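User: Can you model how glutamic acid sits in this protein?
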Amino acid sequence: MEVRVRFAPSPTGYLHVGGARTALFNFLFARNQGGKFILRIEDTDLERSTKESELKLMESLKWLGLKWDEGPDIGGNYGPYRQSERLNFYRDVVKELMEKGKAYEVYARPEELEELREKLLSKGELPHYNREMLEQFNTKRRIEEFKNNGEKPVVFFVFEDKEYELDDLIKGKVIFRKGAIGDFVLLRSNGIPTYNFACVVDDHFMNITHVIRGDDHLSNTLRQMAMYESLNWEVPHFAHVSMILGPDGKKLSKRHGVSSVEGYRDRGYLPEAMVNYLALLGWSHPDGKELLTLEELIDNFSLERVSSNPAIYDENKLRWMNGYYIRNYDIEDLTKIAKKFIVDSQLCDEEEFENNFEWFKEAVASVRNGVEELIELPEKLKIYFEKPSLNPDDLKLNQELIEAYLKLSENIKKIDDWSKNEILRIFRETLKENRKLNKKDFYMNLRIILTGKTEGPELLDIVYLFGKDKVLKRLLTVESFKK
Ligand code: GLU
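Assistant: Here's the modeled complex, given as structure tokens:
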């Protein structure tokens, strides 16, 4: 049977790290098994769901490279893929459940249900609803009243109270003891299903074979299992992934300063680094390999290797990993990604960037070693754009060095073909002409004369990227030190 899994976000905000990991595990499992990865938008919370958030979620998933096979934007054989467009499915199933005596209408208003709950609690009882107590609301008068006002009843599910057993693909056997919950709502009075109900109906009609999601949904799984049973539907496999914890051992949240996937993208994380890091939050490679391409992740992914222990989020490791990817990325692609950061920091405008793309490629290559987030890049590139303020104290010039730099100027003037090879040849020639020169002093002072700094990219890169005119102009400044 074809494996079909789904990622089912509620479009109420950005794609967060936890959601991204869930999406990734579903994606990797589907690809590993040659199955289908489906995107379903769970927008039944009408007040909090927005189109903007749906678009952002999709954008973030695409950015991560997690392409879905069916979804609201591309369709598929099991659509629609937005719950708000599937209300007829839920209505039909409610009808079926009511006919089977597994669901019933309650003509109560939300505040009355709340009041009932409070009453149970104050009597020291479990706040579990049952049919007997709820159907008391269904008086003739009340039903009439609802009809006249155009109000609709709430539909409750008859929860069969017993022990339920789940064979979870990650957690192993999970036992839900009797007495944990009571009857619960399927359809709200506005005709909108609750998450648990819509989820079961959709997973069933979309032929979902494996439900891979966070273990914060375990208590929902109990409700969902009861519904599958009542409907005589085949239960999908469940795999509940453990939570991600912050370094303090508490559930990962904004408090830990961790941003959305979009937030990481905006700070210059590469999707490959993000995906690699997220995959290791709970899963591990059989050989303990940590730097893995998407292909390697797909080839090696299995639910058996997903730990049932919580994963600890370590932003330093993510940073380190991003640095690794930045250093090893195809330079053309990296420069294209870097464009936004460079233009945003106003080192140049878009047109200048495009017209000098080859130059920027070299410049990015020259500084990328020390960069872990692309947002740090413009600061490193500044030496190519700003006039250095020379601090005479940094310079340790003697007459010999000054003579050598003037000689270097002469030699540089003669270069026709401005290439790194030629520049290197000229460096060597100049040094050869004055054998007493200390090479280290020569290069260090040259760096300071050109950039005003004692460190930075390779000197050869600096000279090459500055270009002949700028190098000559800056070398001329040593004249003023001449005695
Ligand atoms: N909409 C639910 C959420 O965002 C989906 C849970 C599930 O995968 O069943 O948490």
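A couple of observations from the model: The chain has 21 helices and eleven strands. Residues 8-10, 42, 199, 213, 217 surround glutamic acid (CB under 6 Å).
User: Helpful, thanks.
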